[in-house]
Amino acid sequence: MYWMKPTVNGDVIGVYQPSHEEFQQFGNNIHNIKAWAEINILSLSDVLVTSSWSTFGYVAQGLGGLKPWILYVPTGDRTTDQPCPRAMSMEPCFHFPPNYYKNTGSRRRLATASLAPHIRQCEDATSGIKLVNDKPL
């Protein structure tokens, strides 16, 4: 694709996928080694674009210290104003954090992302939370 339609400014784009496994194979250690190799290759990227809920992307961004671009796949007739926004941090999304409840008798659930200033709701998982650093380094 990039050979036939190069980038406007001449940047070289490389896409590497050594395993071509296509689907998860639980309990197959050879498959797991190939998956780990692919995650490591992703973590060495200069720029990382991942799909939402991508385990490979989450691990690679953490290993490489990368703030990825998250590609949202349209569902049905729904579109978004930002189809590929930048992640707020390099931290992976914790999809299913524990539930916390106020001790008021009504057992009203607390918004987990409001528990601390450095915890936010994930960009790609409404129930998930992630660590963020609001202060520039």
Automatic annotation (TrEMBL):
The keyword Transferase applies. It is found in: Golgi apparatus, Golgi stack membrane. It is a single-pass type II membrane protein. Keywords: Cell wall biogenesis/degradation, Glycoprotein, Glycosyltransferase, Golgi apparatus, Transferase. Its EC number is 2.4.1.-. It comes from the Eukaryota. The keyword Chaperone does not apply. It is an enzyme of class 2 (transferase). One of its GO terms (molecular function) is galactoside 2-alpha-L-fucosyltransferase activity. May be involved in cell wall biosynthesis. Belongs to the glycosyltransferase 37 family. PANTHER family: FUCOSYLTRANSFERASE, FUCOSYLTRANSFERASE 2-RELATED. This is Fucosyltransferase.
